[in-house]
Write a structure and sequence with these properties.
With 667 residues, this protein is mostly helical. It is built from 36 helices and 6 strands. α3 packs parallel to α5 and α25 runs antiparallel to α26. It comes from Oryza sativa subsp. japonica (Rice).
Amino acid sequence: KCITGLSGVMDGLVVHGYLVKYGFGAQCAVCNALISFYAKSNRIEDALMVFDEMPQRDIISWNSIIGGCASNGLYDKAVELFVRMWLEGQELDSTTLLSVMPACVQSHYSFIGGVVHGYSVRTGLISETSLGNALLDMYSNCSDWRSTNKIFRNMEQKNVVSWTAMITSYTRAGHFDKVAGLFQEMGLEGIRPDVFAITSALDAFAGNESLKHGKSVHGYAIRNGIEEVLPVANALMEMYVKCGYMEEARFIFDHVTKKDTISWNTLIGGYSRSNLANEAFTLFNEMLLQLRPNAVTMACILPAAASLSSLERGREMHAYAVRRGYLEDNFVANALVDMYVKCGALLLARRLFDMLTNKNLISWTIMIAGYGMHGRGRDAIALFEQMKGSGIQPDAGSFSAILYACSHSGLRDEGWRFFNAMRNEHRIEPKLKHYACMVDLLCHTGNLKEAYEFIETMPIEPDSSIWVSLLRGCRIHRNVKLAEKVAEMVFELEPENTGYYVLLANIYAEAERWEAVRKLKNKVGGRGLRENTGCSWIEVRGKAHIFFAENRNHPQGMRIAEFLDDVARRMQEEGHDPKKKYALMGADDAVHDEALCGHSSKLAVAFGVLNLSQGRPIRVTKNSRVCSHCHEAAKFISKMCGREIILRDSNRFHHFEEGRCSCRGYW
């Protein structure tokens, strides 16, 4: 027993040899001690050998070997030994049941857990609080919150472990709303929440984005002086991050004296998810000076590189992950593929995807969606079929990706085939996003009437995104009459979104309905609405340059303006006149030309042409959909300068070469 506590494996083997040599090896008490020693030393095969060779066994022998197997991951063996013990007529006690219950959750014999529960009720052992708590934990791990609740309510004596197990059960089952009441009830019963109870409750409030209840627990932590206890601080940060309160999360982070990787990862991941990519990279660089990032850190920081379309930084992260051996982690590998997709490096994304040895459904879905974003629908379909051929069945997310790909490539028949297969072959009920893809697809292929009828017969209420897809289709196919009808639905659902008024104004402008444009301008202007200001950015030599519409304050502002003036002049010489095609809300004719030259996408493209050597692609990212004029300008610049321009907007990628775009005029 002394050697077991000191983890002296070699000494234990020597003592075992002496016991056998001097004839003590067959005594029950000695064998029990040996089983415990070998089990705790992770030599479970030796423990099993001692157990099998025992001439006589008592309840301690059985409990030791069952618990040893469970703690060493031999869950099926633990359950088999429990059943064998029962069949041999050996009396079971609470320790036996406590030993086998963790194995019941993890083994192929989970139904034995119900048997254990029934036995504990018949024998009265369930009255022991420790056994009740173990049953709570077992049912919680099996996601059976109803059984957990029943046991909890029938327990004669509950301690803080009981309450924490119940909170955890509700959280795992997604019943976050029940946790607040239970936490309050716990206080009324005079049970003081410990660190585990507090972190469990905060996990629930993070999942439910319940800031009010999360702040209440935060207050309790402050009053009891445990706010800076690391697990509590990390849970508080996670709660504030999930609720979108990054300043509060950062405040807690800055006041924790001893941070661990969870602390850093929580805040870095929060910045990435909140589209605060620069803050995420700043914090990541600080972390490098204090702690070694792990695989989770990589999975947290890579979305930041993706959101910035920062291929250079993404490659640095890739190299770091390779050096540390993190590519074996699926989360890291998938995040890398996603990063390359969103940085416009589709070939690199596919190469990495093909190298993955353990592709899961997320891996396939990311790559399929990537082809869709880049307008390569046929490749997306081929990959989707390859995925099914590998034995991985699609879910709602992968169907969303393939429908999106069909939509952006105008593959109408294929889109209908996949949409119908959701219900008929895979028993997946289409959601709003799937209907939105189909509307977009029908509009893309010019079937506006069919799209309208499809919306009218949808089994779920269409939201504004559905109607806006049809409105954009009306713009592409110049159907003003239907556009007016659809716009009424859109304005009714989202009356404050000025982008939709701009869209209708441009539809009127393209049809040269100038009186309708003027009336719409008056309607919008009278309500104090203005077009939202967009921004675009481009990375050159490791530095991100951000451009805002009509902002000429960049150090190279004069050079950019001269270049764009030359582009505008040459476009007009070749018959392009944006003033006749596109309307700007709130802009009069005097500023129209200047505004068109000052769109953020064009400023970023111009900067790229002026600062990147010939032969290098110009990669620009925009935080909203690219406008029609910028789209035309990018096509023209790609031909005029002989450059490849890769523009990522909020909806898809546009690859401009030789005056053509991969979207073929629909986005």
